[in-house]
Amino acid sequence: MKATQHTQTNATKTLLTVVFSAIILFGFGQIETERFIVRLKNGNGESKSMAIGNMFSEKQLIDTRCFKTSEGTTFMTLTLVKENGIDHLGQLKANENVLYAEKDELAVLCGEEQIRPTDAQYYKQWAMQNNGNIPFTASKKGADIDMEKAWAIEQGDSSVIVAIIDTGVKWDHPDFAGRIWVNYEEVPNNGLDDDGNGLIDDFNGWDFADKDNNPMDENGHGTNIASVIGANANNTAGFAGMDWNCKLMNLKVMNQTNAYYSWWIEAIYYAVDHGADVLNMSLGGETESQALTDAVNYALSKNVIVVVAMGNNASNKVSYPSNVSGVIAVGATDPDDTRSEVFNWSATSGSNFGSHISVVAPGSYIYGLSHKDNSDYNTYFSGTSQATAYVSGLASLLRAQLPDASNMEIKDLIESTADDQIGTAAEDKVGKDDYYGNGRINAYNALLVNAPIPFELKEGDISVYPNPSTGTFFMNYPEEVEKVTIANAMGVKLREFEANDQNGTQISVDVNGYVLVTFSYQDQAVTKKIIIIE
Q: What is the DSSP string of 346-400?
C-alpha cells in the first residue's frame, strides 16, 4: 500500500501475501514460530482443548486461544515454536479430538490509498455519477453505478446491519454519527461479559487482532470502506455513502502488520451471531482454508449476504474465500468502465479475474473518510476492496427493500441487473465472462426491479354520483387518495376530510348551483363538478 500518510510493513504492501510463520522476539533471541487453526470434534470443547494444549511443553507453546460458535463448534488457535524435523501440523491432525487442523495464514487488504491530486479539479465520487471529466485519467460519461436515480427508490433502513470486517473503523468520525452498530445486550464499560459471548464490553464491535473492545482504525482501509458503504448523507459535509441509514458493525481483523485467518474467521461467526445482514470482506489470502470456508458457509446458511474482493494480482490466481460458492466475488473497474488492469499504485497490480467472478464495480480513485483527521477529505484508495464496498452498499439497500428475500435472490438481482459489455470487446463478452462477471453493477436497475409502481391519479378512476344531485351524493375513488376537499362555485372551501374516512359514503351539502369536489394524492389532484338541483 502506498501512501504519504501511513508507514507500513512489506506485509501490507504486497497484495495477498501468505505468511506460513512469524518471527517474534523471545528473551534475547529470535524464535521462529508457526500458527495453526484447529477445529475440535463435537463434545466437551474445554476438555478437548486442554488435551490438545497438553500435547506441547511450555517451551513449545507460545500462545493459544479458543472460541466457540453459537452452534457449539469450538475452534482453537495455537502459536508454537517452529522446530526442525517436527511436524506440528501432522501431530495436530492425528489427535483424536481434532476434526481438522491447518496453518493459520495471513490475509492482506485488497485496496491501496493515495492522496488526491492537487493540480486539477476532481469530481471525487465519480462512481456515483460519472460526468466523464476526470482530468488525470481516462474517464467516460455514464461509467458509474447510477446512484442518483437509485436513491430516489431506496435510501436504506436502520434495521439493516453491514459488518465491516477490516482494519477497524474510525467510529467517532462525525460522518458516522448514529451509524455505528451497538450491541445493546452489553452494558458499556462495566468490565463484564453481559451477553455471555466470551467478550467483555463489546458494545461497539470488537478488535479480534488486539483482543479488545476498541476496533479503532490504525490503517485507513476500513474507514474508507465504511464511508463508501454508509457515510452520512445530506449533512453538508464529507461524503455520501451508498446506504444512508444502515448500521455499520465494526470488526477489526488487522493491526498494523498482520491479519490472520483465525481473526477473520472469528469475526465472521461474531457478525452472523449478532445479526449482520451483509458481510463486507475486502481481504484475501492465497491459501485455501477449510476453517475459513466453513465460516463463510455458516454465514450463507444463515441468509447473510457475503461480498468478497477478487484480489489485486492482475491474474486469475484465486484470492480466498472469493471462490466459495454463494458469495458475491467482486472485481474492479476504472472511470472509463474498463477492468482495472493496473492500479495507479503499482505497475504489477490489477483486478483479478476468473470463472468465479460475480460482478465488477468502480475500484479506482475511490475517495473516503480519513482515519486520522475528521476534516481531511483528500485521501482515496484503489483496489477490488473498494469495488467490494460498492456491492455491499447495494446489497444493504436491496435488503432494506426486500427484507424477506434470500441472500441468493439478492445475489441474483445484483448479477442479473448489472450492465454487460461495458468493457473491452476482448474481455467483456455477452453474458457472464471471466473478466467482468455479469457486468458492472447498476444500483438503479437492481432497485427498480421491485420498486413500487408510481401511482397516477386518473379522472376515470373516480366517480361522483348522482350528477346532477339534489344535494346528496356518493363518492368512490382509489384508496391512494389522501384528501377530499369540497368547495362552492367561488372556490370557498366548504368541507375537507381524510379520504379514507368518506370513501363510498353519502355526502350532503347545502348549496345552490354546483360544488367542486377535489381528490388529492401527493402533488396530483382531480376535480369533479357536481350540479346541485333543488
A: -TT-B----TT--EEEE-SSEE---SS-TT---EEEESHHHHHHHHHHHHHHHHH
Residue 482 structural domain? 459-532
The per-residue pLDDT for 120 is 28
Buried b (16+ CB within 10 A) or exposed e, 147-184: beebbebbbbbeebbbbbbbbbbbbebebbeebbbebe
Helices and strands (DSSP H and E) totals, the chain: 10, 24
Domain contains 468: yes
CB 323 within 8 A of CB 296: no
Q: Is residue 307 in some structural domain? A: yes
Catalytic center residues? 166, 221, 385
Model pLDDT, residue 33: 86
**Domain holding 93: CATH number?**
3.30.70.60
User: Residue 387: which of 464, 465, 333 has the closest Cα?
Assistant: 333
- Quick one: pLDDT at residue 6? 30
pLDDT at 123: 41
Within the chain, what is the greatest distance between any pair of CA atoms? Answer: 111
φ/ψ of 66, rounded to 5, equals: -120, 150
Query: What pLDDT score does 65 carry?
Result: 83
> What parts of the chain have a pLDDT lower than 70?
1-30, 108-123, 501
Q: Kind of pairing, strands 379-382 and 112-115?
A: antiparallel
When divided into structural domains, the chain yields a total of 3
The answer to whether residues 357 and 435 touch, using CB atoms and an 8 Å cutoff, is: yes
Q: What is the pLDDT of residue 510?
A: 86
